[in-house]
């Protein structure tokens, strides 16, 4: 091709591109603007685009089914020495929950360290749990986020892999207005059965009753995991709103004195049979008092530090921690051994003798 032809073709291509994007290069010689530049339609992408959007039903679980759950375990995620999930240990923990009466599990919640997972890990674990155990227990995936867009996308993925319900927290760190909270929850509630999680000590912002009232009529609203206390729980249950206690040390009274449907429990990772008894068989202040030292021990440091330490001492998970979590100190581990002996080793998960473990037996991974 001659140089003159090449220049001509290049000029024509440049002119075609220019015309497609709404301006004419011949106008550059004049000082008068003719019309307005117009954005090309192809550059406008709807903000609600989700690659997995489908008109097929993703979830056949009714909200009524979720509302009836009494014991929901916030299941622990165990790790291999390389920091990846130990699915063999996880499956064993899940089996123990099922045979001891738990009706639901939260996957990838605070206890399951969802905040330390990539979303690929998160959705994989939800899908694995549904695939292996979804016919025996309700799988509630923690797909909450402080970004509404991210929360919707993760929730769609969670329902696509079969979870029965979603757990949603209010936007943390950046926080938002009360109107923003309502809009955020209305957006995620559109995806399927949902439990709202209120834990101001972690998010830095309470979800007040006015917000819950505003979204309570949504057909996908299953209820609230409430950590503020029993007076708040009573306020909701008087209105007919389903509530799960988020505090193990209050859950007995929440259930039998303040109208809560049940509990989302950390302690049931360790003693699922006793927590089942506490939630299913009527008031039992003697059992509640017996478990109180365990409740207090578990939460002396932010959850799940105590639980991770306890499960390692019981020999049901490897003593591997994802940073920034580290095990409780030696003296506290000695206390746990005494608590187990007081309650009875037979009530705890696993079959090995409870051990104190030495500091060098714990492995901390940062990747």
UniProtKB/TrEMBL annotation:
GO biological process: diaminopimelate biosynthetic process; lysine biosynthetic process via diaminopimelate
Keyword flag Secreted: no
Pathway: Amino-acid biosynthesis; L-lysine biosynthesis via DAP pathway; (S)-tetrahydrodipicolinate from L-aspartate: step 3/4
Amino-acid biosynthesis among keywords: yes
Enzyme Commission numbers on file: 4.3.3.7
Pfam family, one: DHDPS
MF GO annotations: 4-hydroxy-tetrahydrodipicolinate synthase activity
InterPro entries: Aldolase_TIM, DapA, DapA-like, Schiff_base-form_aldolases_AS, Schiff_base-form_aldolases_CS
Keywords recorded for this protein, A-Z: Amino-acid biosynthesis, Diaminopimelate biosynthesis, Lyase, Lysine biosynthesis, Schiff base
Segments traversing the membrane: none
Catalysis: reaction(s): L-aspartate 4-semialdehyde + pyruvate = (2S,4S)-4-hydroxy-2,3,4,5-tetrahydrodipicolinate + H2O + H(+)
Similarity section: Belongs to the DapA family.
Chain's role: Catalyzes the condensation of (S)-aspartate-beta-semialdehyde [(S)-ASA] and pyruvate to 4-hydroxy-tetrahydrodipicolinate (HTPA).
Name by which UniProt lists this protein: 4-hydroxy-tetrahydrodipicolinate synthase
Native source organism of the sequence: Asparagus officinalis (Garden asparagus)
Organism ancestry: Eukaryota, Viridiplantae, Streptophyta, Embryophyta, Tracheophyta
């Amino acid at each position: 091709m001659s140089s003159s032809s090449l220049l001509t073709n290049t000029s024509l291509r440049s002119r075609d591109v220019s015309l497609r994007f709404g301006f004419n290069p011949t106008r550059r010689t004049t000082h008068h603007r003719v019309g307005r530049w117009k954005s090309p339609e192809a550059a406008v992408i709807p903000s609600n685009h989700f690659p997995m959007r489908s008109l097929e039903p993703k979830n056949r679980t009714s909200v009524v089914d979720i509302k009836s759950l009494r014991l929901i375990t916030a299941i622990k995620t165990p790790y291999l020495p390389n920091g990846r999930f130990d699915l063999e240990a996880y499956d064993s923990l899940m089996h123990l929950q099922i045979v001891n009466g738990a009706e639901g599990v939260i996957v990838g919640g605070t206890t399951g360290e969802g905040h330390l997972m990539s979303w690929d890990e998160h959705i994989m674990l939800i899908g694995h749990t549904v695939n292996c155990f979804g016919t025996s227990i309700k799988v509630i995936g923690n797909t909450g986020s402080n970004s509404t867009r991210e929360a919707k996308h993760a929730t769609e993925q969670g329902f696509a892999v079969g979870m029965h319900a979603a757990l949603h927290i209010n936007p943390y760190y950046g926080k938002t207005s009360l109107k923003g909270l309502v809009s955020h929850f209305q957006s995620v509630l559109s995806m399927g059965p949902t439990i709202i999680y209120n834990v101001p000590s972690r998010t830095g912002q309470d979800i007040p009753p006015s917000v819950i009232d505003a979204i309570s009529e949504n057909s996908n609203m299953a209820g609230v995991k409430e950590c503020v206390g029993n007076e708040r729980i009573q306020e909701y249950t008087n209105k007919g709103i389903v509530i799960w206690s988020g505090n193990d040390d209050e859950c007995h009274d929440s259930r039998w004195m303040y109208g809560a449907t049940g509990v989302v429990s950390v302690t049931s990772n360790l003693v699922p049979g006793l927590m089942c008894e506490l939630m299913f068989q009527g008031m039992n202040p003697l059992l509640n008092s017996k478990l109180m030292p365990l409740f207090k021990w578990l939460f002396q440091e932010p959850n799940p530090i105590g639980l991770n330490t306890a499960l390692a001492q019981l020999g049901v998970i490897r003593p591997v921690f994802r940073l920034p979590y580290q095990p409780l100190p030696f003296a506290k581990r000695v206390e746990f051994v005494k608590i187990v002996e007081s309650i009875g080793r037979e009530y705890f998960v696993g079959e090995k003798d409870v051990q104190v473990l030495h500091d060098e037996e714990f492995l901390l991974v940062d990747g």
